[in-house]
Each structure stands twice: as structure tokens, then as C-alpha cells.
Amino acid sequence: MLRTTLLALSLCLLPLAAQAKPTAEQLVLFFGKDDRVKTDPDSGVWQAVGQLETKSHLVCTATLVAEDVVVTAGHCFINKHGRFDPAISFTVGLAGNEYSEQSAIREVQVDKTFLAGLEHRPDGTYIPKKIAGRDFAFVRLSQPLGRSRGVIPVFAGDSQALKQQLQGIHNTVTNGGYPLDDLTHLLVHNNCQATGLLADGRLTHRCDTLEGNSGSPILARINGRMTLIGIQSSAPVAARRRKEDNMALSSPVFYQQLQQFIQQGRTRK
Catalytic residue among 103, 214, 234, 251, which? Predict the structure, then answer.
């Protein structure tokens, strides 16, 4: 997960081997209290959420939205040198040294506007605010894990419809992923708060997240079913926590492109 939309990617993406306990700074990022709960990744909706690893061993969280497609954040595929970093595996049911299933990767599609708008500087690669609302990517798996793990439905309405749905559930959402302080266990923040929907489609929220949570699902119970309404993108530095909430991308931003990507895979079969 990016710390801010203007922070260098080389400082934000997480090597798979790194692990650490929450620091005082991270507790600030948790709005003063860590509300995450270790959760069985083979239970309920979480069966469709897993860990994505790239060739240079960076990790993010991703969600099955079709039998062979996961959605995640676009910046997950930019390495510390600012180059495209392809995914190599997607793992579900990860708990400690064990996991339930794993698939290699067939294809990654990162939003073209996002890739074209990255700023490459001597000190790293930056994401300008003008493209922050395009930080999404779709990944096609070699194995259709969604057949056994299930998939999470994606909210198909526009931004106004999403606002109305959130108001109806008092802006209550849930987020879960594999963060830097415990890369091998699913940590979930249940019943956290969405706080706003910006004009560019970014969704502000107060769910506890760290690096590694990039691309993790923002879920809301709509019509009785847990539905993906966004994916985690960024958070401010600790010094700005009182002024800024975390940022996700809402599903209206990427829904149509996602459906096209899913359909392309079906057409090729």
C-alpha cells in the first residue's frame, strides 16, 4: 500500500521476506487502536481473498471476482526501479507456513492511463494525484481457483448508487488482507467506516491498513451479500493521519474495464 499518492514507490512496496510488529507510527495509522482480527482464510467470503506475489517478491492482496480473475491495485506491479514487475503467483488460504491453493499467472492488465502518468525521478517513481484514481489492475490466473474458492461479486452501480447504498448501511464496510506486520495471516477490520466518495472515484475510509494491504477488498453488505465496492490504494504518512483518511478506489471506476477483461478470457477459451 502506498503511504501517500506522492510518495516514492520504492519506499512503499513490500518485499515478501520482511516482517515486523506494529510500531508506534503504525498505531497512529490505525487511528490510535489496532482493530484488526486474525481470521481463518478458509472461512466465508475470505476464501476468495489471497496474496499476490511479483517476480521481484513484492506482495499485495487481491480478490477473486471471476473463476480465473483477481482484482488488485495497479501500483503493485511497479518495482523499486519504476519498471513493470509481473506477478508470478496468487495464493489463497494462506495461514502461517501453509496454504490451501496456489496459481501461476497468465496475464496482468494495469490501467494504461495510470502507467502513462507515472513520474520517474532520480529518487524513485511517483504517482501524481491526477492518476491516483486509476490505481487498479486485473490479473488472469492459470488455474480457475474461483471454482473451488468462490468469487466475490463486484458492485455494478455508478457512484451515486454506491453513495445511496453506503448511506443505507450507515457507511459500514469491512477490509481484510495480508499486511506487513503479519504477511502470512489474514487480518480483518470488521465494521470500519467509509467516510467519503471523491469526484475521481476514490473512496476514503478508516479501516486499519498497512503495506501489503494494497489491492485488498473494501466490502459492504448489499442486499444481504458481501460485495466488493473498492480496493485499497493508499494511506497518508502518520504525521497527516488527523487530516487524511485512507484511500481506496471505488468499483464504479473500474467495473466496466473489469467486465471486459473477464469476457476477453472467456472468448479465448
Answer: 214
The reply to whether 75 belongs to the active site is yes
Q: How far is CA 105 from the centre of its chain?
A: 17
**Which residues face 104 on adjacent strands?**
89
Active site residue 214: yes
Each of the 269 residues of the chain gets a pLDDT tens digit; together they read 433 333 334 333 444 444 456 688 888 889 989 999 999 999 999 999 999 999 999 999 999 999 999 999 999 999 888 889 999 999 999 999 999 999 999 999 999 999 999 888 887 778 888 999 999 999 999 999 999 999 999 999 999 999 999 999 999 999 999 998 999 999 999 999 999 999 999 999 999 999 899 999 999 999 999 999 999 999 888 888 888 999 999 999 999 999 999 999 888 76
* Residue 35 near residue 29, CB atoms below 8 Å: no
Instruction: Provide CB contacts within 8 A for 208, sequence distance 6+.
Output: 29, 30, 31, 34, 35, 36, 175, 189, 192
What is d(CA 49, CA 52) in angstroms, rounded to the nearest whole number?
Answer: 10
123: β partners = none
53 CB-side CA count, 13 A: 17
* DSSP3 helix / strand / coil % (the chain, rounded to 5): 25, 35, 40
Q: What is the dihedral of CA 189, 195, 198, 203, to 10 degrees?
A: 10
CA 11 to CA 54: how far, in whole Å?
Answer: 16
